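F.,

This is the one I mentioned.
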């Protein structure tokens, strides 16, 4: 007698399988004849591992309009606006907003999130807030925190000291923003410093890297070198990498093999990258998304990130990683069926590898976290941004949604409409 049995679901690879759950683990797959306390019929529906977001800013989420909106829509005004907000935001406010976002995430089957948390201010209220949130959501969301000196490691007197303090309090990952240091040289030094800190402490490294339209912002080259030097393969990522959109093709032909050799990953954030980049252009206007297909062709792990939801940088968002992948496949022109399937994999398996999640998947013995979608395949899930019929987190059903059907009143046509095809 299992605790939960999901019957007849279609897995992302097209396999039809039952999934039996005992406690917080998958106990059996394939054809399961035993009974269960609860049975969910998933016949014809897609059963997937949960969605994973490797790049988010939970300390700022759901703060849109406080204390004002980003009038220019630029990255720099967003950073300045966040500087105003973090000075007045209380721990209680940040916790409340973050928990609300986690409710949204849970309802959308987003059960693992890596959030950067600003370590610039000496008060470290953001760190205090998200460490509390991490404990509260641990039964259903794996929340990984990055010590992120938003104003730069060296721009402020206590920037480096505060990052070390945050790591000492239990923050998981070393972060940075080299292109926002005062000079290119200080940016290069910060990459080397941060990689050394990660290596010495046995931590992962995730840098906001070259989030700019400037093709001469090339800190990703330094990052690849330092990842190789310190043996951080599989533990390091460069986020955004938007300057690669504008780089000379010959230089990129040298850069991509260096990145591949290092074993670093890349995390573009399509919704936000195409919104913030190119703001100084007239026409043609750059959209600023990094070279996703080219990196994948070199064997580099690339995952889509959400980045922002209703905050100083972005006024929209619903915690739906299918929205992220949907936008990403359009901007990168990844419209071949194999490429679209890969976009789905980027918000599940690829992102899980980037975060180093253990027990992630749909095999016997894996953590029993999964989502049942109102779609027959990953490609259809992307097309429809499919309803999450059920979300299971560590063996417990935590959310249910109705199918996305409509009722019609049209002569000679069906009474109900389902957009699956």
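My design for it:
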């Amino acid at each position: 007698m299992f605790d939960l049995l999901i019957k007849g679901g279609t897995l992302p690879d097209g396999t039809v399988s039952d999934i039996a759950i005992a406690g917080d683990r998958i106990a059996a797959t394939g054809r399961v004849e035993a009974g269960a306390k609860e049975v969910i019929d998933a016949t014809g529906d897609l059963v997937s591992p949960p969605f994973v977001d490797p790049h988010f800013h939970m300390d700022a989420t759901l703060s849109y309009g406080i204390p004002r909106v980003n009038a220019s829509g630029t990255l720099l005004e967003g950073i300045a606006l966040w500087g105003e907000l973090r000075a007045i935001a209380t721990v209680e406010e940040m916790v409340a907003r973050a928990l609300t976002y986690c409710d949204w995430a849970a309802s959308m089957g987003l059960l693992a999130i890596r959030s950067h948390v600003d370590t610039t201010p000496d008060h470290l209220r953001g760190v205090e807030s998200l460490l509390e949130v991490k404990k509260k959501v641990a039964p259903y969301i794996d929340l990984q925190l990055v010590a992120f000196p938003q104003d730069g490691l060296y721009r402020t007197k206590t920037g480096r000291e505060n990052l070390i303090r945050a790591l000492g309090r239990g923050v998981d990952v070393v972060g940075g923003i080299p292109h926002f240091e005062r000079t290119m040289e200080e940016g290069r030094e910060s990459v080397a410093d941060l990689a050394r800190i990660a290596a010495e402490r046995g931590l992962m490294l995730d840098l906001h890297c070259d989030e700019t339209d400037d093709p001469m912002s090339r800190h990703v080259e330094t990052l690849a070198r330092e990842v190789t030097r310190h043996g951080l393969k599989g533990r390091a990522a460069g986020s955004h990498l938007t300057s690669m959109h504008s780089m000379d093709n010959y230089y990129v032909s040298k850069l991509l093999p260096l990145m591949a050799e290092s074993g670093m990953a890349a995390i573009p954030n399509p919704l936000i990258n195409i919104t913030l980049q190119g703001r100084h252009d007239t026409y043609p206007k750059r959209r600023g998304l990094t070279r996703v297909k080219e990196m994948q062709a070199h064997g580099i792990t690339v995952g889509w990130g959400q980045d922002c939801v209703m905050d100083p940088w972005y006024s929209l968002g619903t915690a739906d990683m299918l929205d992220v992948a949907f936008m990403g496949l359009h901007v990168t022109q990844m419209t071949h069926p194999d490429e679209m399937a890969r976009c789905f994999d980027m918000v599940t398996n690829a992102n899980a590898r980037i975060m180093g999640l253990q027990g992630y998947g749909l095999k016997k013995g894996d953590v029993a976290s999964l989502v049942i979608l109102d779609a027959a395949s990953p490609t259809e899930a992307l097309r429809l941004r499919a309803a999450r019929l059920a979300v299971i987190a560590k063996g417990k059903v935590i959310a249910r949604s109705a199918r996305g059907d409509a009722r019609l009143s049209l002569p000679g046509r069906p009474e109900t409409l389902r957009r699956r095809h």
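The CA atoms of residues 24 and 340 lie 31 Å apart.

Talk soon.
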